[in-house]
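Hi there, hope your week has been kind to you so far. Would you mind checking whether the tokens look sensible for this chain? I owe you a coffee for this, so here goes:
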Amino acid sequence: MELTPVGIIHSPYRLQGEAPRQGRFADSVAELEIFPPFAAALKGIERHRYLIVLYWCDKAQRDRLQTRTPHGPEIFGVFACRSPSRPNPLAFCVVRLLEVRDNRLLVQGLDALDGSPLIDIKPYVPEIDSVTC
């Protein structure tokens, strides 16, 4: 399997402890810089208010299989929680699209660290992506 970053994330979070546990609740603005060979893939993105951002947690621990969550002392397997430390630290976040500037997207609600590799972007479609529990 081979992943090719399509861009890089510029965020205000430099260290792991600075990023919010869930980006959705953050007001900060981040910039998704799309590399020039992939800029044509942005055509029509301005039609969407929310996006799913997939990124690589390159500073996460890849050997961790269990962890504590912020909700208590119980230990969970990483597949049962949202810890960035996991065998393949692929992360996603639903963000609000604020502005499109050529090959750069300004978004709100992203919890990625500055410099994180951007793997993919997909439009968030509530009829497909939201389920009622």
Q: What stands out?
A: The first helix runs from residue 126 to 129.
